[in-house]
Amino acid sequence: MAAILLDVDGVLHVSGDPIPGAADAVRRLRENGHRLRFVTNTTTRSRAQIVAELEGQGIEVDPEDVQTVAGAAVKALAGKRVLALTMHAIVGDLDGIELVGDGADAVLLGGADETPETNLVFSYMNLARAFAELELGADLYCFHRNRWWQTKHGPQFDAGAYVVGLEYAAGVEAVVLGKPSSSYFAAACEALDADPHMTWMVGDDLESDIIGAQGIGMKTVLVRTGKFRPDAVERARTQPDGIVSSIGHLPEWLEEHL
Ligand SMILES: [Mg+2]
Predict the structure, then answer these.
(1) How far apart are the CA of 182 and the centre of ligand 1, in A?
(2) Distance 212 CA to ligand 1 centre (A)
(3) Ligand 1 centroid vs 184 CA: distance in angstroms?
(4) Do the domains 70-176 and 3-41+180-257 match in fold?
């Protein structure tokens, strides 16, 4: 029996389109006695929306078992005054954080999506406001610094470039709250009461999922769906413990390799 962290986007579905066999694989992993936690860097959907989407594809999920970047932000920034440049969908999950327009203790950068909302959030005016707060001493936090993410229409420009832009302008370094930060993986292992060395991370993103989880000694499986790119694996200095064609093949792969 193992503790298993499952990434959501690219592993269970892509843009809401289920990966074939995903629901069945989750059911079989549970039947085999494994403890599961869903760990996502999603910045465009609330926890409730993530749960509803998974249930819509036949995957039963307790909301408590879904670890989100908004949850990580609440842990890190509760009680602080925060200028948040994030997608509207997750604002409701930032409970306990005081969202402000100025006089911030911290600037928090979320992700982007392909809708006009991204233009509004990352407008010159908002980025200049964030820069001003950093100049006044606010700390910079981000959900992740992803360069791009995978949609059913192909790769899309992500918010990492805005993070790097603000770091460059203000001469600061952002604290990453989501994957691949060690604190995010450690929190997930803790929630399952599991030793990282005995815990598996299953993801489609070599940088965020695999290398991040290996950083705290976890075992890793990369799936060939979602963001997976064979050339990235060939170039990488570290390799996952296993590569499976999709989540559908994970239960039998684990039975052979545990
Ligand atoms: Mg993913």
Answers:
(1) 17
(2) 13
(3) 15
(4) yes
Architecture of domain 3-41+180-257: 3-Layer(aba) Sandwich (3.40)
Taking 70 as the pLDDT cut, the residues of the chain under it are none
- Side-chain-side CA neighbours of 238 within 13 Å: the count stands at 18
d(CA 147, CA 165): 12
CA 219 to centroid of ligand 1, rounded, Å: 17
Distance 119 CA to ligand 1 centre (A): 24
Distance CA 141, CA 175 (A): 5
| Domain edges within the chain | 3-41+180-257, 70-176
Tell me how far the alpha carbon of residue 14 lies from the centroid of ligand 1, in angstroms: 9
d(CA 56, CA 119): 30
Q: What is the pTM of this model?
A: 0.94
Calculate how far, in angstroms, residue 33's C-alpha sits from the geometric centre of ligand 1.
24
Give per-residue pLDDT as tens, 104-133: 999 999 889 889 999 999 999 999 999 999
Give the CATH number of domain 70-176.
Answer: 3.40.50.1000
